[in-house]
Design brief:
Number of helices: 7
Structural class: alpha/beta
Distance between the termini: 28 Å
Number of domains: 1
CATH architecture: 4-Layer Sandwich
CATH class: Alpha Beta
Mean pLDDT: 92
Helix content: 10-25%
CATH topology: Metallo-beta-lactamase, Chain A
CATH superfamily: Ribonuclease Z/Hydroxyacylglutathione hydrolase-like
Radius of gyration: 16 Å
Length: 217
């Protein structure tokens, strides 16, 4: 089973997560959003004795990947994800920093863009499944680990809410469709690790999230 540690970053309290196998100490870092927090995050990974395997990105918004390039350099790992449709955000990284009021940061150099329904072997002792969930951004990827019952949902599903779809390239209908077809169909005891806010479960959101009631699942 996988463990994880959450680090809140940026003025938007974005949840960067280090997911690791307690036995092998192999780990991945999901959405390192703040370039200013990279030294601290790097030191934490080092102090825990973890073996970084990759950095994974859910989408191309600056607050989710502003620290990715510098952290990848320090850890000597590749950056994978999101889907190539989010290149539109990555190609305007400097403009994003102005738009969101965040410090400028190096553009993430993506070694591999991901597609829907891939099975990634990241040396965690179990596969990581990709779920392409457009709507918040066109190339948003969620990462599902069925054995550990974990979902890294990025900015698709939150505790009591769903992601915004009013940004450029956003699509509210696509977002609801993705949640309906790919997210709420997961087991109820799946833990949802969102990009902002507190943790939740699929089962809890199905009965309490007003965006999901009454008829989308």
């Amino acid at each position: 089973m996988l463990n994880y540690i959450t680090y809140q970053q940026t003025a938007f309290a974005q949840n960067c997560r280090v997911v690791f196998d307690a036995q092998t100490k192999n780990c991945i870092v999901c959405d390192p959003g703040s370039s200013g927090d990279v030294p601290y995050l790097y030191k934490q990974i080092e102090n825990l004795g973890l073996n970084p395997q990759a950095i994974i990105l859910t989408h191309g918004h600056h607050d989710h990947c502003g620290g990715a390039q510098e952290l990848a350099r320090l850890l000597n790992v590749s950056i994978i994800g999101p889907n190539i449709a989010d290149r539109v955000w990555l190609d305007h990284f400097k403009e994003q920093s102005i738009m969101f009021g965040l410090p400028e940061a190096p553009v993430p150099e993506i070694s591999r863009f991901l597609n829907d329904n891939e099975e990634l072997n990241l040396n965690l002792g179990e596969p990581v499944h990709t779920l392409l969930c457009p709507g918040h951004t066109p190339g948003h990827i969620c990462y599902y680990m069925p054995k550990s019952k974990l979902l890294l949902s990025g900015d698709v599903l939150f505790a009591g809410s769903i992601g915004r779809s009013d940004f450029p390239q956003g699509d509210p209908d696509a977002l609801i469709k993705a949640i309906k077809e790919k997210i709420v169909v997961l087991p109820d005891d799946t833990k949802v690790l969102s990009g902002h806010g507190s943790e939740t479960t699929i089962g809890r959101e199905k009965i309490s999230n007003h965006f999901l009631i009454p008829d989308i699942y």
